[in-house]
Amino acid sequence: MRYVAPLAVIALIAAPAAGAPSLADVQKALAATQTVSADFVQTATDGRQARGTMLLKRPGRVRFDYGPEASYLVVADGSRLSFVDYKVRQVSQWPVRQTPLGVLLDPNADLAKVAKIVPAADNPMPGTVGVLAQDAKRPDIGRILFFLAPDSAAPGGLRLTGWRVTDAQGNLTTVELRNMRFNAPIADSNFSFRDPRPVTKPPGRAG
Fold first, then answer.
1. 3 state SS for the chain
2. Which of 19, 67, 98, 164 is 20 to 30 A off residue 11, Cα-Cα?
């Protein structure tokens, strides 16, 4: 039997598969992806699903439209990510960079500092490259595990297929992307929304 030194075994286990995309390849693919339009399926921790359409435009813009029957909307305008609830007439907002999606929306994000490729054995989406990103300085904003599949027709040869976001409370939200189109023009007007909050009149004014 051929003897293999223990350190050599460890090196073989830790080494990426030959030809597997590196973190630098992922960075290049994201940099080449300026816009994305897609259908999506969103699955919550309890298994409930929602469907809709997504528009993404870097830097900082994304819109998740859950359809005409939904009373809510998620949209980022380049600086703020807003959850708009028309039923209760409320808007919750966060800086885009302080959300797990920030790493996908920020063209200046350095993946080498905040992300790593997960081993194939730990990747829940076989056939994809799994990239786990989390800001060590801001663990309260949660983490994102996003997936890319080799695709010669996609920018940089890698197609973003979806992600899993885990928030600070451990809640898991999975988004799967389908019917994707890349780098087609998307107007900035798609990333605005009708504000449902009631207008408050200044004190002392009547009428």
1. CCCCCHHHHHHHHHCCCCCCCCHHHHHHHHHHCCEEEEEEEEECCCCCEEEEEEEEECCCEEEEECCCCCCEEEEEECCEEEEEECCCCEEEEEEHHHCCCHHHHCCCCCHHHHEEECCHHHCCCCCCEEEEECCCCCHHHCEEEEEEEECCCCHHHEEEEEEEEECCCCCEEEEEEEEEEECCCCCHHHHCCCCCCCCCCCCCCCC
2. 164
Q: Are 177 and 161 in contact (CB under 8 A)?
A: yes
Neighbouring C-beta atoms of residue 149, cutoff 10 Å: 16
Cβ-in-10-Å burial (0-12, 13-18, 19+) of 101 comes to: buried
For residue 27, give its domain range. Answer: 21-178
Half-sphere exposure of 107 (CA within 13 A, CB side): 12
Number of domains, the chain: 1
Which residues of the chain are under the pLDDT cut of 50?
1-18, 207
Q: Given this model, what pLDDT does residue 8 score? A: 36
CB 42 within 8 A of CB 59: no
pLDDT of residue 200: 66
Half-sphere exposure of 201 (CA within 13 A, CB side): 5
pTM for the whole structure:
0.83
- CATH of residue 77's domain is 2.50.20.10
